[in-house]
Amino acid sequence: MTPKNPTTAPTLFDLEAPVAKKTKRTTGAKATKKAGTTRKKPAAKAKPATGTRRRTSAETMASRQREISVSEFFTKNRHLLGFDSPLKALLTAVKEAVDNSLDACEEAGVLPEISVEIEQTGESRYKMSVEDNGPGIVEEQVGKVFGKLLYGSKFHKLSQSRGQQGIGITAAGMYGQLTTGKPIRILSKTGKRRDTHEFLLTIDTARNRPDIHDTKIAKWEKDHGTRVEIEMEARYQKGLRSVDMYLKQTAIANPHLTLHYTDPAGEKVTYERNTKELPPETIEIKPHPHGVELGVLIAMLKETKSRSLSGFLKEEFSRVGTKVVKDVIATAGKGLSEKSYPSRIAREEASALHAAIQKTKISAPSTDCIAPIGDDLILKGLKKEIEADFYYASSRPPAVYRGNPFQIEVGIAYGKPGGVGLEVTDEGRIRKKKNSAEVTEDLVSAADEPIRVLRFANRVPLLHQQSACSINKGVVQTNWRQYGLQHPRGALPIGPMAVLVHIASVWVPFTSESKEAIASYPEILKEIRLALQECGRKLGTYIRKGKRLKREFEKRSYIEKYIPHIGIALQEILDLSDGQRDDTVETLEDVLHKSRKF
Amino acid sequence: MTPKNPTTAPTLFDLEAPVAKKTKRTTGAKATKKAGTTRKKPAAKAKPATGTRRRTSAETMASRQREISVSEFFTKNRHLLGFDSPLKALLTAVKEAVDNSLDACEEAGVLPEISVEIEQTGESRYKMSVEDNGPGIVEEQVGKVFGKLLYGSKFHKLSQSRGQQGIGITAAGMYGQLTTGKPIRILSKTGKRRDTHEFLLTIDTARNRPDIHDTKIAKWEKDHGTRVEIEMEARYQKGLRSVDMYLKQTAIANPHLTLHYTDPAGEKVTYERNTKELPPETIEIKPHPHGVELGVLIAMLKETKSRSLSGFLKEEFSRVGTKVVKDVIATAGKGLSEKSYPSRIAREEASALHAAIQKTKISAPSTDCIAPIGDDLILKGLKKEIEADFYYASSRPPAVYRGNPFQIEVGIAYGKPGGVGLEVTDEGRIRKKKNSAEVTEDLVSAADEPIRVLRFANRVPLLHQQSACSINKGVVQTNWRQYGLQHPRGALPIGPMAVLVHIASVWVPFTSESKEAIASYPEILKEIRLALQECGRKLGTYIRKGKRLKREFEKRSYIEKYIPHIGIALQEILDLSDGQRDDTVETLEDVLHKSRKF
C-alpha cells in the first residue's frame, strides 16, 4: 500500500484537471450541486487564498497565544467530565458527591450514613442534596475543595480511594452554575462543639478559583458532617443507568454504609448497613521501583532530601532493601556508588540506574494498600441481587501496572439453563431443586440475551461507557464457548448470566475524567481475563454436569416408567401378592438408582 | 427492582451471620481459602478498624489538600492524552506535530511542505522529527508553546482548526521526557533575514512551565519554519493504525500538502500536493445565541464592554440584528429594556433573557467558519485509495450543536459484489465492465467482513477508539439492511465497502484529550445518520440495479445460446443462404436486446 517512490511522489490525487475545479469553494466559482444535497455555498466574502499570500505572521499569532484556565477547558469540554447530557449529569453529580462522602467517612474512621435527595425544581431542573456524617471540612478549605478544579488530597498519595483527581465535585458545581446560574450551597461542621458554616459559592472559571458569595453560621442538628446542594439542568429517569441503580450498586459494594434516598416523586428508601466494621484502613504506599519511569526517576533524584543514592532508593521507594540497593548499583555501573549524591546524578547515569532497576528482581508491592470487597461479600451481593442457580467468586492476587498495585475480583451468577434445577440426593436420586420449579425449556431458549456485566472500581459502580472499558474487553476476549456458553465473535457471550468485576487499586486508570471506564493496560486486562477464566472453568463444570444430569434424569424416567409394568408381569408369573409386587417395584427402583452411577 | 419500603430498609445483604465473618481481612481472622484462588492474606499490620475510632480529623485532612498541577495530572493520566502504549505514543506524537504544522501554515497562508522522519535510536526508542515551512514561532513564545500545557491560540476563538486545546505537542514532549529523560529540540525561524533559534527544553511538571536548558542561534537553510524533535520510548509497526497510515490519510484530506516521510528503515516517500490552493481561510465567529448556556450568558453580561443590552446582544453574538433584539427583550419581560446596563442585570433577569433567546427564532450560524473537504475531493480520494465499483459522496448542510456550527461529509466506496461489474451499453446490451475482469462469485461471498470506516475530524484522520466514536455509532445505527447489505444488530454492516465520514467544526467535541473519538452529541449523531442514509439510498439503488442486471444478463445469455440454433433451423426451413442466416441471427439478437427492456 505505501508508495515507495522516493522522488516522483505517488500523488494521492492525480489532479491534472484545472485547479479551479478543486478549489471552487475558495475561488467562489459556481459549485456544481449534487442532487439531493443542499449544502449552502460559502459566503462570497471568503477571500481567494493564493499560495503565498501571508495571512498572519508569527508575531500576530504570538499575540493570540494565551493561557487556558483548566476550568475554561473543562467548561468547554464538559462531556469529558460526564456532563454531556441532562440525564447523565444528574447521575454524575450524585456520584461525585457520594464518592467524596464515603472517602471522607472512611478516612476519618466514621461509619458512613449518607442521605441523598433529588428534588424537581423546574421543567428540566433538579436539585441534588447529599449529606453525610463525615468529619466535615475546615472553613478555610471549603472554597477550594468545591470551587477549584485540580485541588485535593488524594492525587499526590498512592492509596486506594474513590476520588483521585480533585475534579469531580467542583465539576458538578460548575455544571450547575453553567446551566442554572445558581451557586452551590454547602454546610459543613467539623465537631460537636463547633459552628456549622454555610457557604454559597460559584466557580470563577476564567481563573479557576472559588467565588464565595455568602458565608454564615447556620444551625444544624448534626455533630459533624458535610451537606452539598447543587441545582442543575437535568433529566431524571429510572433504569439501568439511573441514580437509583447507582445507589443500589453502591450499597452492594459498601455494606458498611447506611444510605437514605428520596427520589423526585418523594419515595423514600433506606439501605441499612449490614456490618458495623469499616473496610480496612488502606495504607499509603511509596512507588514501586519497577513502575517508575525514567523522567519521574530524574525528577525524584533532583527533589529528594536523601543525601546518598542508597538512602534515596530505600526511602523513596517501597520494597527496596540493602540487597536490592547493592544489586541495582552494581548493575548500573557508570561509576555510581551507594554514596553518590542524588541531585548530582546526570541523565546518562540516571538512565543506567533506571535500566538497572528494571533488570533487578524486586519483590512485588505490598498489598495492604488495597481493600478488596472479598469473595464472601461478592457472593452474598450477587445472591441478593440476582436469582440464579450457580454462583462463584474468585479473586486474583494483587498485581502491578506502571508500579501501581491493583487487584481484580470477579463474581458470576448463572441461572436457569436447560436441565439445571436438578440435583442428586444422598441416595443417588436425581430430583428437581425446590426453588427451581419455574425452570422450563422455554426459559432456557429465551435466554438469548448478552450477559450482564456489573463493573466496579474501588467500590464505585461504573454505569456508562461499557464498551470502552477494559472490564468489558476482558469479558469479550475470554473464550466462553469452552465453558458451555454461546459466544459471538467480538461480542459479549449469550446466556442467563451476570458477571461482576471489581478493580481495587491505588490509582485506577480511567479513560476520561468522568471515570466511567477503565483504560486497557495489558496487565489489568490479563488479570481480568485470568479471574474470569477461573470462574469460567467452574461454570463449565457446572453446565456440563447439568447437561449430564439432565440426560441421566431422562433415561431414568424412561426406565422408571416401565418398572410398574414389570412389577405387574412378575406378579402374574410368580403369583405374588400386591404387597410383594410393590416391594419388588421398590427394590427395582432402588437398584436402578444404585446401579446407574452418576 | 427498587425497594420501596420507607422505614424497615430493604437490606442488600441479609447478614445476621457473625460480623467477624464479613470482615475477616480487617480483624485478621483466618480467611477460608477458596480452592484455586491464591489471594494473599493482608499483612497483619493492618490495624482493626472499629466503627467509631477517628482515624483522621478534618484538620489533618485539610493539611493534605494541595493544588494539582495540570502537568502532574496528565503525567499520571497519560493515557488520556493518547500515550498509553509505546505503539500509540509514536503515532500520537507525530500527529500532534503535523497537525500543528498544518494549522500554522494555513493560518499564515503558506502552502505547507512538511517533512516527517522517524529514526530508531535504541532497542525501544525512536526519535521523531517534524519540520515545516510555516511562519515559525517568535522566540519568546517557543518555551510556552512547547513547555506549558493548556496554552495556545486556538482555544479561545471559534474557528475551525486541527488543534484546539493547547495540550498536544507539550504532552508529546512530556512523554518523551518521562520515558527517556531527554529534552525536546526545537528550531524556529520567522523570516528570511531573521535568526534561527534553537531550543532544548523540558517541562517542569510540578509547575507546568517550560524549563529551557539551552538556546542558541543555529544555521538553517530555510526561509521560515519550525522543526521539532522528540525522542521517546516507542514501538514502530506498519498497519491500519500506524504512522504510515496516518500520514497517508492526512494527505488524502489535505490535498494542498506536500509531505515527505522517512520511515525507520530509511525508506522515503513523498506525497506531492495536488493543488496549490489552500483551503479557504476560515472565519472566526462569535457564539450563536442558541448555543449559549445560562452560566456563560451571565459571565458574558458581567464582562462585556457594551453599555446597553441591545449593544451587548448585537456585538457579542452572531446572527443578532435589531429585530431579534426587540423580540428577545419583549419575550424576556422582567423590566428589561434595550438600554438595560448589562453588568447590572441580575441572575433572575438573565435567566428570563436566556429563556427568551431560546424561544426566539434566530437564523442559523454563518457557515463560512467551516471548511469542508468537498464532495469532489472526497470522491477523488476514495477512488485513489479504494478499488471499488461504486462511489458516492454526500454533504449535509451545516448544523449546530451547543451553538457550535459543524458539517458532516460522507463518502462511500462499494466494490465487487455479486452481479456488479456489469454495465448497460448505449445499445441496451449488458456487458462486463473493463476494469472488473477479476470479479468472481468467490470474491463476493468472501466479502463477509465488517465494512471499513475512515474517520476524519477537521481533516485529521482518527485511527483509535473507533467503537467509542459517534461516527461509528452513526454507521451502526443506520439500517443498512434496507440498502441491500447484511447488518448484524448492534454491529457494523458486512460487505465490501468503505465509508468515509468527515466532521468539520469550529469546536470538535472529542471524548478525551487524545482526540481519538467524537462525543455523541445528538445533533452530530443525527447529521451523520442523515448523510449516511443519503449515501445508503444511492447504494441501495445501485445494489438492486446490480442484482437486476445480473438476472437479466443470465436470462439473455440463456436466450442467446439458442439463437444460432434457431438460425440454423430457419435456414433449413426457409432455405436461406449462410449470409441470410447470419443476418437473421443478428436481427434476432438485436430484437432480444431492444425488446427486453432493462
Can you give a write-up of this model?
The structure is a homodimer of 598-residue chains. Helix content of chain A is 36%, strand content 18%. Chain A has helices at residues 19-22, 24-27, 58-64, 70-76, 86-108, 139-147, 168-180, 243-253, 294-303, 309-316, 322-332, 347-359, 375-385, 441-446, 470-477, 522-574, 578-595; strands at residues 66-67, 113-122, 125-132, 151-152, 184-189, 196-204, 209-218, 225-233, 258-262, 268-271, 390-395, 399-401, 404-414, 422-424, 430-432, 452-457, 460-462, 497-505. The first copy, chain A, has an 8-stranded mixed beta sheet. In chain A, strands 11, 12, 13, 16, 17 and 18 form a 6-stranded mixed beta sheet that branches. In chain A, strands 14-15 form a two-stranded antiparallel sheet. The first copy, chain A, is globular and about 115 Å long. Mean pLDDT of chain A is 82; it is low at 1-52 and 434-446. At the A-B interface, helix 1, helix 2, helix 3, strand 1 and helix 4 of A face helix 1, helix 2, helix 3, strand 1 and helix 4 of B.
Number of strands of chain A: 18
Spatial strand order of the main sheet of chain A = 7-6-5-8-3-2-9-10
Largest interface: A-B, 165 and 165 residues
Shape field of chain A:
globular
Q: How is the main sheet of chain A built?
A: 8 strands, mixed
Strand fraction of chain A equals 15-25%
Please count the helical segments of chain A.
Answer: 17
Poorly predicted regions of chain A are: 1-52, 434-446
Name the quaternary structure.
homodimer
